[in-house]
């Protein structure tokens, strides 16, 4: 198992059966809200947030700026949409989810039928290998492991439509005769990320022309390109996993719960835990399929409440101990460095790569959120989106600013590099130089060593 998969196992959000329907308004929040947030963490509420079941179009803060600001470029990081589990609970029947796309079945999107028709004609694009061997849309009557579902496609058609209304119709980010070099598209080699990226683009672009769509392949879930070798980052991760393991050992109720679940499915406790039952249960919950039962009984809500309570404790300790932050600062540096490079070229008037899309995983977004200092942000839900906007002040054309948005919420002034700026400035965004200084210098300062660049920080002795 690679380190990223191991990290993923620990941070998936557990699920429960819905007792009450949350309103779409309360489901979409990422920052604590005293009005809609339950007073204590409620596993049902958290699971609904995580499922992100498509409902009414959400209100979002993307593209909000005073009229004298001009949008220069947009950089979008997404987690793939709803998927079938990556793990099977031993000795139980797999949940029966249909991964074919049916236009008149819920969840529905007006562009779904046209999307299927467009994708089924086959790509006129030549994607970077090995992406060219992946299917362009989900198409199995019984989903395959990890396959994107219809819900996942609709989530990203919805994301794309939302961004189109704001960035293309309102702000005219791309000209009418836009060209392939004005998009930068990158995805990992999983069908669920490629298909999520295609669904978002299909909702976003006014004219989905295969000749203009070129996806680059990213072998690493951290999108670190040629800068993936970083021994100190891996040491932080090992220490973080050790911390998680020790916390779990202390929790006798958690061990008892895993023991009960293991008895139900008649396997050793260790084997059940290794099968990551939460991942499969999440699928049951999001698709309203009852949890598995055997002749020994059923897995139930109480099991999940125990696991969820432990995870909340784990998240709290994770923030206090700062090991994950060390991992995140080094893990997110290459992709943030690439992003500011793209922004700086745009400030010079270059017209390439005005819209960048990274179609990725929870283990991609989570370190970026942590590195930016967004400790209040929830674990990335299905089809989560993190967006960097670059703006130019028309009254002072040499001045450029950034806004950061997570699932439609403006989190710019929650970031570590801009949390004090709005106290000194009335502008509703952050100077680009704050972000550049953070990526070029302050990320390394935060690690506490003497390193002032990525290579030195990754190879620091005596950590």
Description:
This protein has 463 residues and is an alpha/beta fold. It folds into two domains: 60-224 and 325-459, Rossmann fold, CATH 3.40.50.1240; 232-321, no CATH class. Helix content is 42%, strand content 11%. The protein has 16 helices and ten strands. The chain has helices spanning 3-11, 24-27, 43-51, 112-120, 150-170, 191-204, 231-250, 252-265, 269-274, 277-286, 301-321, 323-347, 362-371, 421-424, 432-446, 454-458; strands at residues 69-79, 183-187, 215-217, 293-294, 297-298, 355-360, 385-393, 400-406, 409-410, 430-431. Strands 1, 2, 3, 6, 7, 8, 9 and 10 form an eight-stranded mixed sheet that branches. Helix 7 (231-250) crosses helix 12. 46% of the residues are buried.
The CATH superfamily title of the largest domain: Phosphoglycerate mutase-like
Count the domains.
2
Helix content: 40-55%
Within the CATH hierarchy, at the fold level, what is the topology of the largest domain? Answer: Rossmann fold
From N to C, what is the helix and strand string?
A: HHHEHHEHEHHHHEEHHEHEEEHEHH
Rg over alpha carbons: 22 Å
Structural class: alpha/beta
Shape: globular
For the biggest sheet, the summary is:
8 strands, mixed
Name the poorly predicted regions: 1-35
